[in-house]
Amino acid sequence: MAKKLHIKKDDRVRVLCGNDRGREGRVLRVFPKDRKAIVEGINMVRKHMKPSQQYPDGGILEQEAPIDVSNLMVIDGSNNPTRIGRKRAENGKGWVRVSKKSGEIIK
């Protein structure tokens, strides 16, 4: 069973290490089983495509590759990278994500 991640789709994140260190982007997709995420404009790779119906000319495409979630940090509402905590929702049903730095709830 995959462990719950601190990152969700559409979160704004900052890259902590690697060639794209310090850059920010929006999470497009999350793979909890592999503990990886695809971030818009981060970790770009070149993919060689054979001609097909979708790409009649074939060629070389640039696309995002998955990056490990341990290398990403969520950005809260005040544009600060922060760690994520969880606490009970005010209505008592379920849990909400909370910024460790500012204490505000992250959607």
Chain-wise SSE layout:
Layout: E1 12-15, E2 24-31, E3 36-39, E4 44-49, E5 59-64, E6 67-68, E7 72-75, E8 81-82, E9 84-88, E10 95-99, E11 105-106
Antiparallel strand pairs: 1-2, 1-7, 2-3, 3-6, 4-5, 7-8, 9-10, 10-11
Please describe what this structure looks like:
With about 110 residues, this protein is mainly beta. It has two domains: about 1-75, SH3 type barrels, CATH 2.30.30.30; about 80-105, no CATH class. The chain is about 0% helix and about 45% strand. The chain has no helices and eleven strands. The strands form three sheets. Strands 6-3-2-1-7-8 form a six-stranded antiparallel β-sheet, with no helix packed on it. A three-stranded antiparallel β-sheet has the order 9-10-11, with no helix packed on it. Strand 2 (about 25-30) and strand 3 (about 35-40) form a beta hairpin.
Strand content: 35-45%
The helix content is: under 10%
- Named at the architecture level, the CATH assignment of the largest domain is Roll
Kindly state the mean pLDDT as a whole number?
Answer: 92
Compressed to H and E, one letter per element, the order equals EEEEEEEEEEE
The CATH class of the largest domain, by name, is Mainly Beta
Strand order, largest beta sheet = 6-3-2-1-7-8
Which fold name is given in CATH as the topology of the largest domain?
Answer: SH3 type barrels
Ranges where pLDDT stays below 50 over 5 or more residues in a row are: none
Radius of gyration: 17 Å
Give the count of helical stretches: 0
* Overall body shape: elongated
Task: Quickly give the structural class.
Answer: mainly beta
Largest sheet: 6 strands, antiparallel
**Integer tally of domains:** 2
How many runs of DSSP E, i.e. beta strands?
A: 11
